[in-house]
Write a structure and sequence with these properties.
With about 200 residues, this protein is α+β, with helices and mostly antiparallel strands. The protein is built from eight helices and three strands; from the N terminus they run αααββαααααβ. The chain folds into three domains: about 45 residues, Ubiquitin-associated (UBA) domain (Helicase, Ruva Protein, domain 3), CATH 1.10.8.10; about 90 residues, Elongation factor Ts, dimerisation domain (Tetrahydropterin Synthase, Chain A, 2-Layer Sandwich), CATH 3.30.479; about 40 residues, GTP Cyclohydrolase I, Chain A, domain 1. A three-stranded antiparallel β-sheet has the order 1-2-3. β1 and β2 form a beta hairpin. The radius of gyration is 20 Å and the shape is globular.
Amino acid sequence: MTEVTTALIKELREKTGLGVLDCRNALREAEGNIEKAVEILRKKGKSVAAKKAERVTSQGLVASYVHMGGRIGTLVEVNCETDFVARTEKFKRLTRDLAMQVAALNPLYISREQVPPEVTQKEKDIYHAQIQDENKPQHVIERIVDGKMERFYETVCLLEQIFIRDQDKKVKDLIAEKIAEFGENIRVSRFVRFVLGDTE
């Protein structure tokens, strides 16, 4: 079994931003394997996020990001539970990263739950029409449509998108990690994206 050294703990802390105790315990569980330890902490982050999801988030920040020489601009409101967390550099960095994400990938909704039912149904109808002539069994068709819907959500929903700064995680994974790190519920409340000359 690999010894859990201070250097390993430091490396894991730099990767995750989590505390010494969490990192040491994860490394012990992962027998010194950094990547496994990251995965363990991510999973724990998700469970911590689920426990904190109902807590009130009345503090936070509105972050802005301007791209392409002023041609694209975004505003994102990210909420947390206390002003103390909202004023930290790590929280400010999170909000800036999310504003950049909106500028780069142009989501239409925050989460899949926000996609109107008629939009979801229209997409499903399109996918069914695309494969109806392929003579596949119904259960196979449904599985294909489900897969296409997942890719649709990954395109149009901010939380489902791949995080632009780390292709190994989605935005919702990033937020779950930050909930575990800050010990507070965090949620994206709203965003808006402006494109120069686009009046719609």
